[in-house]
Amino acid sequence: MIGGRSRRDGPMMRSIGHRSRIAVAIAVGVFFGCVFAFLYPHGLFVSIPRVHSRTSIRQLNSSSCESSQGIHMLKLEFVAASEENAKLKNQVRELTEKLRLAEQGEDNARKQVLVLGKQQKAGPFGTVKSLRTNPTVIPDKSVNPRLAKILKKLALRQELIVALANSNVKDMLEVWFSSIKKVGIPNYLVVALDEEIANFCRQNNVPVYERDADEGIDSIGRTGGNHAVSGLKFHILREFLQLGYSVLLSDVDIVYLQNPFDHLHRDSDIESMTDGHDNQTAYGYDDVFDEPSMGWARYAHTMRMWVYNSGFFFIRPTIPSIELLDRVAGRLSRVKAWDQAVFNEELFFPSHPGYDGLHASRRTLDFYLFMNSKVLFKTVRKDAKLRKLKPVIVHLNYHPDKLERMKAVVEYYVNGKHNALEPFPLGSE
Ligand SMILES: *[C@@H]1O[C@H](CO)[C@@H](O)[C@H](O)[C@H]1NC(C)=O
Ligand SMILES: *[C@@H]1O[C@H](CO)[C@@H](O)[C@H](O)[C@H]1NC(C)=O
């Protein structure tokens, strides 16, 4: 059909006509370029301002023959004024700098000496390493002599597992300490928040520390739910650290399958298990945010990581660690917030206007060894190879039916019951 043919020919014919018109335009452009280059060898745009400035100076002085001398004088005046200006600016800058240093300098310098010791030269390329293992504090027994006595007997290498418990979590606590005993870990302690739990521990030969009313504990510990107890734990932990001990803080919805002290690195202020479930979410990745309306710059790169689990972390007795505990406890006492969110924000947000960030060193524990219940029920139980791997602990943090799942974990890993994990759904139902 004719219509169809002409439609097919159309674009090609048009594109030939288009090209020849472009060629003509280029030729015309080159011609005019040559003409302008001949008439204005110094360029079209430079000459215009020069003419303009000359007339304006002439207007300043009626005598045209002295105009060049006038320009010279003006120039001299201008130079003098600029020099004066620069001098003033420098003085202002120096003063501001002095003021800033005076404000923050003394304190920072003192802190730096405290942390770094003496100044040193940087070594050759590839050999320098910054400090991540901060020095421990000098133990202060006066903080709590009674606790100091208990810890002296109980701790190994100045380290121990600590869990807080009230009678709301009695059943889980039993699975918890049974698993610890089974592995043969001697250095652990239950901080009993009520009399019933204290008695329960004593009956079962579990090391227990009872907080007295005169030790400043309020009623939160006795009656409080999970979150209230969480705020309290940062407060109590401080004393352990002040006494010079490293604490492996543990929730009670955790099953121990190996001794965790054999799997720590002890190089950071905080070593924590993660809520992440694979390499990326556990250890960090570049999460690209797409905003198409920005066109060329549509992709914004962000740093992302699943949070640290504030129910299982190893904390060394250092100044940054104690500062972390103080900051978290302080914020939880002022605002209603989830302690795990606060814990992570304090640990990770950098300094910014109006805020001084914490400078604590951090290490994320292996998420297959220090396993959360999402990893177990989503990945591990369905993977023939991963099923054979024995974690150090399993934390039932992702599931509300904690007690049943804890028992299933014991059945599977300790008693070798191969299908013990199968009846449970992936999430809660
Ligand atoms: C103009 O020239 C006179 C001398 O003819 C001089 O005294 C005067 O300062 C000049 N004015 C300016 C603005 O340069
Ligand atoms: C995760 O990281 C480990 C250690 O770097 C590596 O051996 C493993 O292959 C990684 N897994 C995946 C799925 O990328």
TrEMBL record:
Domain Nucleotide-diphospho-sugar transferase: 185-406
Residue stretches in coiled coil: 71-112
Keywords: Cell wall biogenesis/degradation, Coiled coil, Glycosyltransferase, Golgi apparatus, Membrane, Signal-anchor, Transferase, Transmembrane, Transmembrane helix
Membrane topology according to the record: Single-pass type II membrane protein
One Pfam family per UniProt: Nucleotid_trans
Lineage: superkingdom: Eukaryota
Gene Ontology molecular functions: glycosyltransferase activity
SUPFAM superfamilies listed in its UniProt record: Nucleotide-diphospho-sugar transferases
Gene Ontology BP, a term: root hair cell development
Family label: Belongs to the glycosyltransferase 77 family.
Protein's name in the database: Glycosyltransferase
